[in-house]
Amino acid sequence: MNALIVYASMTGNTEEACDVMMAALEDLGVTCEMESSLNIFGEDFLDVDICVLGTYTYGAELPEEIIDLYEDLDSLDLSQKVFVTLGSGDHAYEAFCQSVDDCYQQFIKAGAHPAAPPIKIELDCKQEDISTIEVAAASAVEWVQSHSA
Ligand SMILES: Cc1cc2nc3c(=O)[nH]c(=O)nc-3n(C[C@H](O)[C@H](O)[C@H](O)COP(=O)(O)O)c2cc1C
C-alpha cells in the first residue's frame, strides 16, 4: 500500500502536520512519498492508494503553489482512491482553513473517498491534532484494505 503526501506550507506548520501524517501512515506499514506541491502533478495521485494534500490558507484564494495541482484534479477520476486534506490556519482570520475545505471539495468532485473530514489545525500541531491525523491515517488504510481485490 502506498501514499503520496503533497504539501504547500509557507511557514512550516502544514509541512509539520504532513510529517505527522507520514509517520502515522508509515507506522501502519504504508510506503510514503512526501513532496512539495510545486513538484507534483495531479496525475501523480493516480499511482498511489492514499492521496494526502496539505495546504495553508492565506485569504479566500487558494495558495498559488497549489492552483495547478487543484486544476489538474478537474480532469481526473479518483474514484478508486481514498484521500485526506489537512492544513494549518488561524482563527484570527475570517475564512479559517478555507483552502483545506476547497481542496476537500475538489477531491470529492474527482470521485475520491474521504478518510476523514477536512483536518484544520490552529497554527502548529498539538496533541489532539496528532490524534486526529492518526485516526484519519488508520481510516485511510482500512478503506484501502476493504476495497482491494
Ligand atoms: C497574510 C496572511 C493571511 C492569512 N489568511 C488566513 C486565512 O484567511 N485563514 C486562515 O485560517 N489563516 C490565515 N492565515 C494564517 C496562516 O494560515 C497560518 O499562519 C498558518 O499556520 C500558515 O501555515 P504554514 O505554516 O503551513 O504556512 C493568514 C496568514 C497571513 C500571514
TrEMBL record:
Domain Flavodoxin-like positions: 3-148
Entry GO MF terms:
FMN binding; oxidoreductase activity, acting on NAD(P)H
Q: Which Pfam families does the protein's record reference? A: Flavodoxin_1
- InterPro entries assigned: Flavodoxin, Flavodoxin/NO_synth, Flavoprotein-like_sf
* Alphabetical list of Gene3D superfamilies matching this protein: 3.40.50.360
- Cofactor(s) this protein cannot do without: FMN
Per UniProt, the keywords (alphabetical) are: Electron transport, Flavoprotein, FMN, Transport
Under the heading PROSITE patterns, the entry gives:
FLAVODOXIN_LIKE (PS50902)
Which NCBIfam families does this UniProt record tie to the protein?
PRK07308.1
Mind telling me which PANTHER family this protein's record contains? FLAVODOXIN 1, FLAVODOXIN 2
Can you tell me which family this protein belongs to? Answer: Belongs to the flavodoxin family.
Q: Which function does this protein serve?
A: Low-potential electron donor to a number of redox enzymes.
Its name, as the record gives it, is Flavodoxin
Q: What is the lineage of its organism?
A: Bacteria, Bacillati, Bacillota, Bacilli, Lactobacillales
